[in-house]
Amino acid sequence: MSAAEPAGDRAAEPASAAEVSAGRRRAELERHAATLFVGAVLTMAVVCGAAIVSGWFAGVLVDSWERLFWAGFVTSLVMVAVFAVAAAPGGRDARRACIRITWLLRIGLTLFVLAPLLCTLALVGDFYRL
Predict the structure, then answer these.
(1) Ranges of each domain in the chain
(2) How far apart are CA 41 and CA 39, in angstroms?
(3) CB 101: neighbour CB atoms within 10 A?
(4) Which of 34, 72, 83, 114 counts the highest number of beta carbons within 10 A?
(5) How far apart are CA 25 and CA 30, in angstroms?
(6) Which pLDDT tens digits describe the chain residue by residue (130 residues)?
(7) Coil, helix or strand for 124?
(8) Which positions ≥6 away from 78 have C-beta within 8 Å?
């Protein structure tokens, strides 16, 4: 740094193309995470509300099927928490944040498939007395 160059100009240097690309990718992933979080919360609210309105409760299931149902319910709570963590802003390094968010979204989407599968399997199994 020369004497003619003020100290504040070094911070004003443009970011590299890779940093800009990582920042855009991070913003895109954060939008996806927030959308999936809202979708998961709304889905849980609709399903729980429908169960409450219908008067159904898990205590009427045969014990083994009831355990499977509650496993699906707990899985859905974990799914919402994973999407919430993915949507939460944080970290200064965009590349590391992209990796973190990508893995959390993959885990959340897997749970998004697994949770209703477990609950539905429990309801069908109990209904048909399998």
Answers:
(1) 20-127
(2) 6
(3) 23
(4) 83
(5) 9
(6) 555 555 554 554 557 887 888 889 999 999 999 999 999 988 888 877 777 776 666 666 667 888 888 898 899 999 999 999 999 987 788 889 999 999 999 999 999 999 888 888 887 888 887 7
(7) helix
(8) 111
Residue 84, CB-side half-sphere exposure with 13 Å CA sphere: 7
Element (H, E) at 54: helix 17-54
CA–CA separation, 97 and 90 (whole Å)? 8
d(CA 18, CA 35): 26
Q: How many CB atoms lie within 10 A of CB 87?
A: 21
Which residue reads 């995470």 in tokens?
33
